[in-house]
Design brief:
7 domains; Arc Repressor Mutant, subunit A; GIY-YIG endonuclease; six-stranded mixed β-sheet; 23% strand; alpha/beta; 26 helices; globular
Length: 818
């Protein structure tokens, strides 16, 4: 009887591929193990065993697998079930989910190795100069990689040279699979057994009487081991004895010391930090905790609507304690990596080594280690704190998922597929594990609050700040009036300057919010009006003063700042609009004695970028912090008295049906950073339109008023939560091709969905990375079957792909486009 496996490959294929295996392999293999398999003409891919069976494929002959990569499953059955749901719901392939779910180091790739054809006699005269260089190099080295040949020839594209060498039968190609993950081993030393007793040690010290430095190393090693009784690292021994690794190597060579290696985690928890007991809850928090526990008896999901600084985190901590007592795992989801920095310290103080952190700023090796700890249900990973990708970890026994700041759009993945929403996916993941979910926010999304009011979710509210601290006073500053009365200094109104000076004099800190990075979004010629545009995208280049550069925030294209206008040649260039850099520069001029810093994508690129800035603010090394929206989310700064929103209008006037809801959330969240201790905080919002309804609702903290008004608008204009949305995006370099393809697609959709299809339309930025974009929006009313709707869209998509004229046009399907 023949044996076969169905393999999931980390590429966008609709079906699994079948490979043949031996009887012995079928007995050893399990679903969820990795295998390397041949795919295509030469490539070797990493696949994941999806099923083991005895049914041969009908259409093609099954190839044999290359090798088995694991001794046990690295993906659980519940994970595979979750992947299948993600692929089905978000209209992508399981292979794409696998690529997103597994740490990159798990997806091994083959590399082309080039070797000399020893069977063929080659004359030097038959080869061109570049071919000869490769041939000569293969005499010195048995195999070469593509990158090595590129270095030898000093050119990027070496494939034509390789092609010519293959045709002349000079070289042979082979594929070698290589492992990307290497465990970290730390070097330790100990005294050889014969020197561990008193007699042996004295004899050794006498023998080393002339080698003083070596003698000192031995004495230091003996004293450390007497104190700690723990293995001693070479690094530690070098530091404490004041010697060098060369001296330790000499002692190893002499047979005095014995070296050995221990595999360790790359991320170490500092054991010197004492575990604290979690704080005692006040009566409002205790009431909320009891209500959540009651809600969990009937509901699987509960929304915790607690105003900013009401102490939601401490309520979560109590819930985590209850789950850990049952021996289960907890997933704590956050929208921003910046938030994990502050929260990880807090949680580690309570739960010690049980906290593991998982997000994209960690290296591939570090992520593999966290993944393995979760898979093994290790004591080091009982609480996972992470960004949206943490939902893909291999949980064994999940008891609770906390989605903090659940309203944040950062939970939605836009590119590449799967284009999932981590909050919605977390609810499904919890259901698969029969776990509970808490969604927490001071400004819940309309969908979640509506679900709570319709009794789909439980609803718990905290309306008092912790320690009865007052809500900050919010003041709207009319900058149109200030400009008229000449009371503006740059982008700061006299009111803003006055309040900042007062806060600084009293020893408090200030946060200034501007939702645009860079110095200025537009550089314009005052003579002819020309503005430098990105050559790859339909946007103007943003000026970054600190690098004297013009940069595109869509594709990363950059050039030196222009000295003259490219159109008319005059040097009369001016900047329009402002970003965080310009606010930082103006603040440094206006408040010369204050220490001003900036927190945006440009200043937080490094692994510890967030940590450095947040720590500096907490330790009051920074007086004024200027930042983008990464400042607004749940950070707890005790000494911030004033928050300034530099321009509220560019948030409100955004072409999106969620613009008003998002503006309200953003401004209320940023205002929540002010006055978190006894002194009442103040928030100044600069705007050209202080009578705008959203700004009035922000100033009175009227969430319910905003909710009712926005919900009515959504009902009138057929948007979520009353209608679901699927966006179809078409992309191609050729403008005409996108135009005709999108018209065809929209026409086909209208035949099925009638008036519920909007578009095709060009988005506000219609060309990105030299690709033209066209959007089609499908609105799905509540009674309409979502599964059948997706089925119809997939059929139209299949027909579209079969049309030769549209070859090369990429179609992206984005479900729940918000």
């Amino acid at each position: 009887m023949n044996h076969f496996i169905d393999v999931i490959l980390a590429i966008p294929l609709e079906r699994m591929f079948t490979y043949s295996i031996t009887k012995a392999e079928s007995e050893f293999l399990q679903v969820g193990m990795r295998v390397s398999v041949p795919f295509g003409k030469t490539k070797i891919q990493t696949g994941l065993v999806g099923a083991i069976h005895t049914n041969a494929p009908q259409i093609y002959e099954a190839k044999e697998i290359h090798q088995i990569l694991d001794e046990k499953s690295i993906v659980t059955s519940k994970q595979l079930e979750f992947w299948q749901w993600i692929a089905k719901y978000y209209m992508c392939t399981v292979g794409e989910v696998m690529r997103a779910a597994l740490p990159n180091a798990f997806i091994l790739e083959s590399e082309t190795l080039i070797s000399r054809n020893l069977k063929k006699e080659i004359k030097d005269t038959d080869l061109k100069d570049d071919e000869y260089l490769v041939f000569e190099a293969l005499h010195l080295q048995s195999t070469l990689k593509i990158q090595e040949i590129s270095n030898i020839l000093d050119k990027k594209n070496v494939l034509p040279v390789i092609k010519r060498l293959i045709e002349k039968e000079v070289i042979l190609l082979q594929e070698e699979i290589y492992d990307k993950y290497k465990p970290k081993y730390v070097r330790f030393v100990k005294l050889q057994v014969e020197y561990t007793n008193e007699v042996g040690l004295h004899q050794l010290l006498d023998d080393l009487s002339r080698a003083e430095k070596q003698r000192q190393v031995v004495i230091t090693l003996f004293s450390i081991s007497a104190k700690t009784k723990k293995p001693i690292k070479v690094k530690e021994l070098v530091a404490q004895s004041g010697s060098s690794t060369a001296i330790i190597k000499a002692l190893i060579d002499k047979g005095v010391l014995e070296e050995y290696h221990i595999q360790t985690d790359r991320i170490q928890y500092d054991e010197t930090d004492k575990n604290e007991d979690s704080k005692t809850l006040n009566k409002y928090q205790t009431l909320a905790l009891n209500q959540i526990e009651d809600s969990f008896k009937t509901q699987n999901v509960t929304l915790l609507h607690g105003i900013t600084s009401s102490g939601k985190t401490e309520v979560y901590v109590k819930l985590i304690e209850q789950v850990l007592e049952k021996g289960k795992q907890v997933l704590y989801l956050l929208p921003e990596i910046a938030l994990t920095t502050q929260l990880v310290t807090r949680l580690q103080n309570y739960f010690g080594e049980q906290v593991a952190v998982f997000h994209s700023k960690y290296s591939a090796h570090e992520r593999v280690e966290v993944y393995n700890h979760v898979l093994g249900n290790s004591a080091k990973a009982k609480i996972i704190l992470g960004a949206r990708s943490s939902i893909f970890l291999p949980f064994r026994d999940l008891g609770l998922i906390i989605v903090d700041e659940e309203h944040e759009q950062s939970f939605k993945q836009f590119d590449p597929a799967p284009r999932y929403h981590a909050r919605d996916a977390a609810v499904v993941l919890a259901h698969l594990h029969q776990a509970k979910t808490v969604l927490g926010s001071a400004t819940p999304s309309l969908e979640s609050y509506n679900n709570a009011l319709e009794k789909k979710y439980g609803l718990v509210e905290i309306n008092r700040r912790y320690n009865n601290v007052q809500q900050p006073e919010i003041e709207l500053v009319d900058i149109a009036d200030k400009h008229k009365k000449k009371r503006m200094k740059g982008h700061f109104s006299d009111r803003m300057i006055e309040e900042i000076n007062d806060a600084l004099e009293e020893g408090y800190q200030v946060i200034l919010f501007q939702n645009r990075r860079g110095y200025s979004p537009i550089v314009e010629c005052n003579t002819c009006g020309h503005s430098p545009q990105c050559p790859n995208c339909d946007v103007s280049l943003t000026y970054h003063q600190y690098r004297k550069q013009l940069r595109c925030h869509y594709c990363g294209h950059n050039s030196a700042m222009l000295q003259k206008c490219m159109a008319c040649g005059t040097s009369n260039l001016d900047t329009k609009g402002f970003g965080t850099e310009q606010i930082e520069a103006e603040a440094k001029t206006l408040f010369s004695k204050a220490n001003v810093a900036r927190m945006d994508l440009d200043t937080t690129r490094g692994k510890y970028g967030y940590e450095k800035i947040i720590t500096a603010l907490e330790q009051q090394e920074i007086d004024i912090l200027v930042g983008t929206q990464m400042l607004t989310k749940g950070l707890d700064f005790r000494n911030v008295k004033l928050v300034g929103v530099m321009n509220a209008d560019n948030l409100l006037n955004f072409p999106d049906f969620r613009a008003h809801e998002r503006s309200f959330q953003l401004m209320l969240q940023v205002s929540g950073r002010a006055g978190r201790t006894k002194k009442r905080g103040k928030v100044l919002i600069q705007t050209y339109n202080p009578y705008h309804k959203i700004l009035q609702q922000v100033s009175t903290n009227d969430y319910l008023g905003m909710f009712k008004e926005q919900l009515q608008e959504r009902h009138d204009f057929k948007y979520p939560p009353y209608f679901r949305l699927i966006k179809v995006i078409l992309k191609h370099r050729d403008y005409n091709k996108v135009e005709t393809a999108s018209e065809w697609f929209a026409k086909s959709l209208r035949q099925v969905f009638k008036a519920n299809v909007l578009g095709p339309e060009f988005p506000p930025v219609s060309r990105v990375r030299n690709q033209y974009l066209k959007h089609i929006l499908i609105k799905i009313p509540q009674p309409q079957s979502l599964a059948k709707t997706k089925e119809a869209i997939m059929k139209i998509n299949s027909s579209f792909e079969a049309v030769g004229a549209f070859k090369g046009v990429r179609v992206i399907l984005n479900v729940d486009n918000y």
